[in-house]
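Protocol step 4 of 6: record predicted structures for both targets in the notebook before any analysis. Target 1:
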Amino acid sequence: MRCCCVRTNCEEVRSSSHGDQVVSAVKERKCDSSLRRKIASVAFTLIGALLLGIGMVLSFALLGSSAGLIGVGVLSALGAVCLSLGLYKLFLRMKRVSLDKAEQKMLEDQVELLRQENQELKAISVFHLNILERYAQQVSDMHAAQEKSLLANENLVKEQEAVVSRLENLLSRGKRAVDCSTFC
């Protein structure tokens, strides 16, 4: 019984350490993807600012040609779009960081609660195991007492049978003696 429980506890320890490894791997992936997103949003912002700046410089340089102005306008518009998307992602990222921290805090709290619950369940299982071991000991003690009682009863029956057989022998001798005395 104890071997099975020890094996189960070892498996729980292995699974909980595996769970910790999974959590750390997920955290590492989140950090990597978070860093990539930050770099991408900063790069988007810089590219947008450069395109917008180049477009504005070229628009001042090419004031006379209409084809140049259209190209510069498209370049400026593209730069403005990239700049706005980059800034939006940066600000969204800042907002998301606070949300991620709140989620991380909530997950850490949940992990801590689960660890406490796991410890309580382990304590309860140890308590139940102790109760079952005491019950098994009581049952084996009762079984041993019953066996002793049965052996004692068998010995008493054998002794009674021996006494009865002796009494029968004595009675049969006594009858013979009485029969002999009446006939003699």
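Target 2:
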Amino acid sequence: MDTAVSENAKRDSRISEISDLLAQLVTHVQKITSDMERANTGPEDKDLNKKNHPLVQQLLHFEEGQTKLLKAQTKLLQAAFEDIGILKTSQKSHTSELRQQHDALVTRLENNPDKLLKTYVQQCEQKLASFTNGFHTTLKTQGEEIQRVLGQLDEVQALTRKTSAAHRDDEYLKLQCPVPPGANPEKYRSSLVRAAWYYITYLGSPDDGVFADEQALEVTKAKFPHLQMNHIAKALEYVHMQAYERPIRRNQDRGE
């Protein structure tokens, strides 16, 4: 009994630790998102490619926090599965012992139909039923706790992927395609992404990637006259690599 109480206390402590880490990580993600929004509305930052830039440091700190969270989550899940294994082993042992006691008492009852013995057998059966019910209840609670932790992990990972991807895309375009004076930075970079996809769909191969095509680039430039040609080309290369995991094929790659 003391061992069970000690294990429950350890498990509660681990769960509390994970909850605190989750809260810290979510708060940090929100802060990074807020900092990025302020950066998008402010002047262009030429030092974003430096490792000591505050946004870069915050992103590194965020990734470090995510790694710590994943390790803590893994540790908690491993402990939870170990607890389930211990419960199953304990249940088998106690069930076997109670069954043996029950069978022995039934044998004695057949030879000595004593009222007190009957009562004791009934108590033994009640204890067996109570233990079995308690085991299944504990197992169900443990399973629900595992599902809850996994759900929290999924939520944080989804937020992480969304924030990291948005941050990465915005910072690449900010460095490679400086916004012209007087233009809205966020709208300009969004237009670059739309122009890249317009180029891809114009050539009619959105599923397989596209070749470099000067005519398609000129048509895209005409469709988005406020964008600089070299910016469209850089955005196209980046979007194509993100979507197809390979650079744009050149004419010599056609095999002609």
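Step 5 preliminary note on target 2. Residues 159-167 have pLDDT under 50 and may be disordered. The chain is about 80% helix and 0% strand.
Proceed to step 6 after PI sign-off.
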